Amino acid sequence: MAVHVEAHGPPLAHRSSRVDASILGIFLFIASEVMLFGAFFTAYFFVRVAAGTPWPTPPFHLPVFVAGVNTMILVTSSFTMHWALQSIKRDNHAGLQAGLLLTFLMGLTFLLTQILEYSRIGFAPKDGAFATVFYCLTGLHGAHVAVGLMLLGAATIRAFRGHYSSEAHHGVEIPGIYWHFVDVMWIVVYSTVYIL
Amino acid sequence: MICVAIFAVVAAVIAYSIWKFRAPPDDESDGPPIHGHTGLEITWTAIPTALVVAIAIVSAIVLAKNGDAGSNPLHVDVTAQQFAWSFSYPGHANLTSGDLRLPLGRKVELKLRSLDVIHSFWVPEFGQKQDTVPGLTTKLVITPDRVGTYPVICTELCGLGHAVMRTSAIVMPAAAFEAWVNKQGKALAGPAGQAGKTVFVNNGCNSCHTLKAAGATAKIGPDLDKLPAEAKGAGKPLDAFVHESIVNPNAYVAPGFPKNVMPQTFSQLPKSQLDALVRYLVSSSRSGR
Amino acid sequence: MTTVTHEHEHVDEHAAPPAPTGWRRLTAPGWLRVPWMIVVFFGIGAGITVLVRWLEGWHPIWKGSIITTVELTTVPLGFLAGIGTFDYWVRYATGAPTAPEDHSGHGARSWRDYFRVNTDHKVIGVQYLVTTIFFFLAAGMLAMFVRAELAKPGMQFFDNQTYNGLFSVHASLMIFLFVIPAFAGLANFVVPLMLGAPDMAFPRLNALSYWLLPMAGFMMLGSFLVPGGAFATGWTSYAPLAVHQPLGQVFFNMGVQWAGASSIMTALNFLVTIITMRAPGMTFWRMPLLVWANFTTSLLVVIATPFIAGSQFFVMFDRVMHTHFFDPGHGGYPLAYQHIFWFYSHPAVYIMMLPGFGIASEVISVMSRKPIFGYRLMALSLLAILVLGFSVWAHHMFVSGMAPWLRVPMMATTLLIAVPTGIKVFSWLATMWEGRINFSTPMLFAVGFVSMFVIGGLSGIYLGAVPIDIHVSDTAFVVAHIHYVLFGGSLFTIFAGIYYWFPKMTGRMYNERLGKLHFWLTFVGFNLTFFPMHLIGVQGMPRRVADYAPRFADWNLFISIASFGLGASTVVFLYNMIWSWRFGPPAGGNPWRALTLEWQVTSPPPIFNFDEIPQVVGSPYEYGVPGARHAVLNGDRAEVGELEEVRRT
Ligand code: HEA
Ligand code: HEA
Ligand code: CUA
Ligand SMILES: [Cu+2]
Questions:
Q1: Which atom of ligand 2 sits closest to the CA of residue C147?
Q2: Residue B80 belongs to what H/E stretch?
């Protein structure tokens, strides 16, 4: 079987698009994530609009203010993420490391606050459809934050081991794109679940 | 019709091509390089478009007609649960029945409800079908126009008893329908044995159980002619056992039969009917031996 | 996630690294690492569950149904970790310098290479096909049981719940483990070759998507073994029923998640490959229609599949966490399930058909020795089906009690889909017209597909017309529709594809006489089996019932006997495939004299497909055009002017 080919390995694939493969990949992945949130929002729609469940169902309350502060934390972390990426584009390793670390810590704060909120909120997923949708939407988002943190964690570790440079920074850019998506999604969740 | 014609056209072209354009085994030549033909392409876009628009319009009109209940329909409330139907007639003192009896020629508006999962009400001869959804009330209009007995079939998979969730729709002349309504009313108010039997049949117990006295022969649940033995097995007096088995079927599950099949809603029967039912089962199973 | 193409410096080290010895064999990726990894992950899953229940004070702390649900997530992860799909990423995440690509995970040198994590799209394609055919046989076996039970009214072999389990697992395996991944497998093998690419964009992701499949399949099959029996709510698994079913139900919920994850990853991979890795000169309007078909299918998958994931999560949460998505007594809304489910599952039927359209286009053009008729309209109609497909989901809910005003608009869009589909059918016919048709087995299946699919599509039009659907919904008429589109449509094209590319995959030719025998047995058996279902459906035979009225007894007996014949025809296919793979005559590079790129290399293709990326200079279907070329390969340089400006699309 075609032994001579093995002697010189794969030919370089032709790049038929200006878009980088990994960047396109993460955007498509995000598209499908958006649809997953879409399915959850459809459930939200049916429970709140079609079935007319009161929102929030008395006697429960939503901690709008605390969650608002939490929102600010998450939004800020998007900016530090951006800063990290800009830094490495200029080969500023200290900026990259600080940016990633800050982002990671803020994300972690967000997640812990969310868990704390669950434990203090006074109702459980089984207490009616309102509670169900509340937990599932915020929980789904929480799971995404957790995944985002894992990606950021890997990027941070590698950043501290000096892996990135102004030429090679996909490993920062891709978690970054994902992180921005997680932030934007939170704003949607926050405004539909807590505020509206 | 249209569809048959379309398939005929397609099949004809295929058959013709197979016969006409078959290449001889060693023919290595190519066909003529036809890349397309705009006129043809427009034609076979336009004609199907016109056809489907026509089908859509006709269907929409038929649909609107079918949904029209007229000015004086008979109202029937349909209740579905795993795995039994029951029908009640709000115009006739909420008389309840395990089969659907309808007077000939009058439009009927069914209001359908479900107590547990989704079921679907279908009488093939009426050509109408509607799901029953827990939490919603759905509607269906039918016009019984021929006397006869037709099957009522549950057509939405609703669990292990789905295939047997059947009863009958009986279309009777208007006078016979009135007579039936009156008789049912009297029977419920009448002597205990008769009332018990009416409750038994009207609630669809006969669609799952065997009971000689009521002419029931179904085999989804235990044979109720053997109740005395069963009560002994459970170590309870017969009447208490029967009562409990009806209001709380899972308290004692007959060996060899699945839990959660017998509906748990009979505990909501009016007390008088429940008592009549229990007495009826006790006496008929004792004598049935 | 780097592509193979980036690691160019280390191309010389192709030999696999020395095989690990001693204890190291237990820690190296492979089948020896699988068992203990599964145990470890089982422990993790059980541990977390017990810990949470203990912390929250829920009793009992050890609850079988909950543990099972959790383990259906963690045990597969253990398997994947053991077999080695994650090694690269774990090393990456911990910051270790990524090992230089030695291509040891690439290509097959012996049959053993098919049983480990392999990143070669050709190996993965074959892995996909063999696995999916296995599940096809399993699902077909279950269908045989279904027909045995239905041969007579009354109950013969199975009780009601088991019967419901049989057709539920039958349909779920056929759809999620056969049709969808079999198309993905064929495309895996063919698409990169057709594009002139050395591999898929993300080979490691590609391997991972394959290894998710066997787990999903065995999960569904395995549900027969759990207490309470297999999941028994049909492949649609409607809530609220599914919430109250025995434990087997979660095997469906989770099986669908794994299979869905696999198909999303594959789709993503296809999209990126098609967009970024086409050979120079391969503009969108020069791509073979199979590539177009997989492009649109992948878009459907990426957009729609998360919805079924959502619907299954909701059912699972309702079961495990006692949430109330579908419980009207607590503010839930039962119909939400159907809307969400069908928003995926209608597009899913096109996911199960569009790749088949692509295969049919390839086969019909080549075997008729003519260019595809109306190439651009063929591609555009795929896109039209893609868009329309998202606007018709409620045609499965005409009798569901949903808002009545939705019916007429959904009927209109449903019927409109006939237009782009019709364009394709008529174009295939026009392609055959005046051709020099070679009725080899793939062509027979392709033509069989066109005729049978038209019957299935037209019965779909009946179903799309609301007043008719109200009568025949949930009857054997729908079962007939399902099988005419899925068997007569998808399965016929899969067979066409397998026969057509068999010489390319194995380097050997299948036995033509057995192939033709297989076709005719299947074609006749199929029609005898499924056509009568139209009739009994209209007369009042419901679907999904083990028992039925005696007046349908004769037809059902007839159908059952025919179906056993249909099942037997599969044996011919299996024998042909296995025998020819081992002993078939060598096929040569291009037995069909086709123009598309995969036929321009040896059979089976070299490990990296092309020695040099080909230059595409024309349409892939220029049969009969004197001197026309699709591509120029290997240094024989194009004449001046033949290579046009290569545009980036
Ligand atoms: C490969 C899979 C596949 C495909 C391609 C289709 C294609 C179509 N399907 Fe089908 N369908 C299923 C798989 C598929 N379906 C399955 C699995 C179910 C059951 C789900 C369950 O379990 O409940 C189902 C159920 C189903 C229903 C619900 C029935 C019910 O439960 O009550 C409906 C209703 O509208 C429907 C309609 C259609 C239509 C209009 C098309 C159209 O796309 C068909 C278009 C094709 C043609 C029309 C033929 C070619 C065209 C011409 C030759 C042009 C001329 C034609 C005209 C002018 C009319 N399908
Ligand atoms: C691609 C999809 C696909 C395919 C190919 C098939 C193939 C077949 N199907 Fe199925 N079917 C569905 C998809 C499919 N089906 C779906 C979606 C449903 C709806 C389910 C629901 O209601 O939820 C359904 C439902 C369904 C029903 C209705 C059940 C009911 O509603 O009560 C029936 C009944 O006859 C049936 C029969 C068959 C038969 C006889 C075949 C035959 O074509 C099968 C032929 C058999 C084989 C190919 C196997 C042969 C195997 C051997 C000979 C053994 C050799 C083995 C070894 C060597 C190990 N199917
Ligand atoms: Cu009730 Cu099926
Ligand atoms: Cu559909």
A1: 35
A2: strand B74-81
Asked whether the beta carbons of residue C334 and residue B134 sit closer than 8 angstroms, the reply is: yes
In one-letter notation, the amino acid at residue C107 is: G
Rounded to the nearest angstrom, the minimum Cα separation between A181 and chain C is 17
Q: Which ligand has the minimum distance to the alpha carbon of residue C397?
A: 1
Task: From chain C, pick out residues whose CB is under 8 angstroms from the CB of B21.
Answer: 368, 432-437
Residues spanned by CATH 1.20.210.10 within chain C? 119-352, 383-585
Maximum C-alpha span of chain A: 75
Alpha-carbon torsion (C38, C215, C571, C585), positive or negative: negative
Six token digits for residue C198: 């050395």
A132 touches chain C (CB under 8 A): yes
Q: Which CATH class is domain A21-195?
A: mainly alpha
Q: Is the CB of C384 under 6 A from ligand 1?
A: no
Closest C-alpha to ligand 1, atom 60: C460
Domain at C383-585: CATH architecture: Up-down Bundle (1.20)
Please report, for chain A, the start and end positions of each structural domain, with discontinuous segments joined by +.
21-195
The pLDDT of residue C102 is 54
Which of A132, A158, A164 to mutate to test binding with chain C, by most C CBs within 10 Å of its CB? Answer: A132
Q: What is the CATH number of domain C119-352?
A: 1.20.210.10
Cβ of C412 within 8 Å of Cβ of B56? The answer is yes
More confident of the two residues B50 and C359: C359
Predicted confidence at residue C467, as pLDDT, reads 85
Query: How do residues C578-636 score in pLDDT, each as one tens digit?
Result: 999 988 898 888 888 888 999 988 888 888 888 888 888 888 888 888 777 888 876 55
Tell me the CA–centroid distance for residue C385 and ligand 4, in Å.
12
CA-CA distance, C287 to C620, in Å (whole number)?
7
Residues B139 and B78: their CA atoms lie apart, in Å, by 10
Residue pair C140/C219 in contact (Cβ under 8 Å)? The answer is no
Q: Does the C-beta of C137 come closer than 6 Å to ligand 2?
A: yes
Q: Specify the CATH architecture of the domain B74-173.
A: Sandwich (2.60)
Per-residue pLDDT of B127-162, as tens digits, reads 889 999 998 899 898 888 889 999 999 999 998 888
Rounded to whole angstroms, the Cα distance separating C466 from C444 reads 35
User: SS3 of C620, please?
Assistant: coil
Instruction: Please tell me if the CB atom of residue C359 comes closer than 6 angstroms to any atom of ligand 2.
Output: no
Separation CA A139–CA C311 (nearest Å): 16
CATH classification number, B185-287, choose in 1.20.58.340, 1.10.760.10, 2.60.40.10, 1.20.1540.10: 1.10.760.10
**CB atoms inside a 10 Å sphere around CB A122:** 11
Cα C510 from Cα C582, distance rounded (Å): 10
User: Which ipTM value was assigned to this complex?
Assistant: 0.88
Distance (angstroms) between ligand 2 centre and the Cα of C492 equals 14
Residue C246: predicted pLDDT: 87
What b/e readout covers C406-436, taking b as 16+ CB neighbours within 10 angstroms? bbeebbbbbbbbbbbbbbbbbbbbbbbbebb
* Spacing, Cα C479 to ligand 2 middle (Å): 10
Residues in CB range of A78: below 8 A, 6 or more apart: A179, A180, A183
Q: Where are the domains of chain B?
A: 74-173, 185-287
**pLDDT for res B216:** 79
